[in-house]
């Protein structure tokens, strides 16, 4: 039973890998699921058992970044870091997980933003919220009440702005993104300290 589950997860991962490889050779827009099936020498029905549509491959791609972030969160030295540094390292781990295929990632996002794609744009907002929730958990943030709501909104804005910066960043080792994230987190930290009375 476990082997079957493992094999299924392995095939799902290989489907995503194949789609990204095809996109690297052309573009994300050009990728078709029957091409993915041909590349893996499986039937199209096998693709359909794992992914109901091409857009779900994008979700699986970003799930990998979530997993990389949560893997870093398990490091035994993480709790000793200040919250700001935990958020910084976790966010960069999320981005670094996608860095080898930044162009394809950018094309995935542009595909979601095309006019008329409301059916994938609305779920994408929920996906952002899910990633931010995991980021908060991984960073061991435990604020509550109005402070939590404000902090969550601020972190979502920081995450989105940093992701947008990263998508267009061609600096060495993403240095521009790293500096941008540092500035945003520093500002948020100062703002949070100015609101000590919120419960």
Short descriptors:
Arc Repressor Mutant, subunit A, Tetracycline Repressor, domain 2, 0% strand, 74% helix, 199 residues
Write structural notes for this entry:
With 199 residues, the chain is an all-alpha fold. It folds into two domains: 1-52, Arc Repressor Mutant, subunit A (Orthogonal Bundle); 54-193, Tetracycline Repressor, domain 2. 74% of the residues lie in helices and 0% in strands. Helix 1 packs across helix 2 and helix 1 packs across helix 4. The N and C termini lie far apart (48 Å).
| CATH topology (level 3) name of the largest domain | Tetracycline Repressor, domain 2
The description of the largest β-sheet is: none
Mean pLDDT: 89
What structural category do the secondary elements indicate? Answer: mainly alpha
Describe, in short, the structure shown.
The protein is mainly alpha-helical and 199 residues long. 74% of the residues lie in helices and 0% in strands.
Secondary structure topology:
Elements: H1 2-25, H2 33-40, H3 44-50, H4 55-73, H5 83-96, H6 102-113, H7 118-138, H8 145-167, H9 175-193
Helix pairs in contact: 1-2, 1-4, 4-5, 4-7, 5-9, 7-8, 8-9
